[in-house]
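User: Could you check the structure of this?
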Amino acid sequence: MRAEERELSMEKAIAVKTCLGVLKGRDCIYLDQMKRDDLNNLIFTGDINGYLISQHRDEKDWFPYTLTFRRVLTHFACELDTYENMAETGHLNRSSFDLIEDSTWLKSLPAREDFNKDIYQHYRLFTYDVVYNIIAVSYEFAAEL
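Assistant: Sure, the predicted structure tokens are below.
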């Protein structure tokens, strides 16, 4: 494979812009609770550090949030420092919530034949303690402004 082809097929992390803007840094997303409901939704609740966002910055110290991933196919959680060491890339100063384009994980999933993998997206969420990689159809983010 030529270098240009490898570059075209590589994963790319795109920062998700929320109602608080881009969320950045290890101390940005604090998680109080994560639960999965009967409809395969994964729901995160907690607080966002008001000093580590790109919009509404410094308006409040903390913004309570709910982040719901809809129709989750699979997810993976790993302690943050261990994940950083596995990936061999420093990430602590970049976006804390990303859409992963051209995901090798999504492409390689051995999903059932009746699943349409084209409707799924790969999301990565860095909380204070844990990194979550999530394959889901969509997400909804709400914060108390």
